[in-house]
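[recover] target loaded
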């Protein structure tokens, strides 16, 4: 064994025994090749101990609207963007949920730009209660950005069980640089409201945006750990055509894989998606995400075809994998795709 291999084995043993010091996390984020494989293997072990049935949660996303009041530099759906605005009609959302339910899907993710208008939130409340009253056994996840505590409460009372609100970066400076129309304090206040109201909350970061250091990513890992959340995710920055950061380079996807593995090791029982931006960054990226410890996949069969190009999250030429591709992917990872909520 070389000195380096010895050091890696020792560091992994430390991490495995629960030592999550900043120095160890920074070292593990940089693991590549065999070292990275050993990290992934520990992450999979932890996933199996928490989810012995080796199941992956399948969710369908319905991108209900692209209207956004924020102007994030990494996103082309910002408020002054060139995209034609849309909101899918309430009865079309309900019909779509009906169709997906009949195909066996039980977890629905309703996603939109950030729109705090009273009319929009009331519309989402009607969509959520419409789906829940017809199908009480369905699980609804919302990803709608920063809203008021009262609005979150209405959505919760309508039947939404989970909410995804990423903190994007644990650095207040970077947060404001990437999202000039928002502040970290505001974001954390929203996260605290969601947790306090009893949502199962998802959060996480993005990797590879301008100004971010390895130390920032270590702080992101520690922040995820401090927050009382049950879902966590990391995405790799994709410089989308219509966004202000379109000329920047793509993030380092290996850092994302390692961050995912570390989140799994630190929180074995969490839900973690293997996102489509991983596939955009590297061939078989979503498979690698599952090998690094992910256990949820989003199936892009809920947004009607004519709206898809108007919701260019990550990229206008993004991948929107359908059911068959996802079943295949999960099978290749030696896992099983289940329709039921895992938490
Ligand atoms: N690259 C990577 N991640 C992105 N997100 C949005 N745009 C990008 C991009 N260009 C992530 C953010 C957001 C989530 C919905 O998608 O983390 O919270």
């Amino acid at each position: 064994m070389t000195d380096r291999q010895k050091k890696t084995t020792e560091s992994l043993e430390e991490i495995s025994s629960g030592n999550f010091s900043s120095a160890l996390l920074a070292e593990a984020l940089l693991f590549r090749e065999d070292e990275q494989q050993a990290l992934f293997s520990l992450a999979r072990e932890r996933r199996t101990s928490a989810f012995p049935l080796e199941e992956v949660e399948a969710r369908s996303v319905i991108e209900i609207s692209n209207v956004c009041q924020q102007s994030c530099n990494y996103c082309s759906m910002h408020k002054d963007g060139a995209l034609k605005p849309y909101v899918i009609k309430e009865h079309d959302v309900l019909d779509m949920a009906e169709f997906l339910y009949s195909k066996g899907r039980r977890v629905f993710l309703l996603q939109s730009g950030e729109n705090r208008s009273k009319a929009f939130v009331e519309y989402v409340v009607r969509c959520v209660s419409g789906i829940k009253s017809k199908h009480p056994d369905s699980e609804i996840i919302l990803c709608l950005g920063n809203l008021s505590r009262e609005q979150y409460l209405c959505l919760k009372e309508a039947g939404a069980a989970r909410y995804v609100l990423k903190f994007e970066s644990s650095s207040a400076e970077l947060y404001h640089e990437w999202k000039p129309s928002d502040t970290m304090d505001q974001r954390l206040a929203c996260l605290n409201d969601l947790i306090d109201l009893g949502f199962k909350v998802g959060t996480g970061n993005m990797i590879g945006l301008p100004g971010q250091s390895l130390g920032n990513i270590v702080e992101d890992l520690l922040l995820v750990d401090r927050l009382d959340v049950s879902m966590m995710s990391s995405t790799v920055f994709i410089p989308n055509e219509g966004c202000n950061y379109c000329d920047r380079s793509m993030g380092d996807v290996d850092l994302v894989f390692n961050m995912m593995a570390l989140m799994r090791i630190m929180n074995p029982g969490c839900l973690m998606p293997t996102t489509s931006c991983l596939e955009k960054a590297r061939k078989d990226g979503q498979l690698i995400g599952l090998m690094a410890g992910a256990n949820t996949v989003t199936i892009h069969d809920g947004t009607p075809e004519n709206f898809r190009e108007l919701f260019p999250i990550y990229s206008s030429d993004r991948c929107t994998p359908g059911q068959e591709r996802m079943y295949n992917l999960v099978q290749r990872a030696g896992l099983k795709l289940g329709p039921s909520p895992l938490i």
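[recover] notes: The domain at 21-337 is CATH 3.20.20.70 (TIM Barrel).
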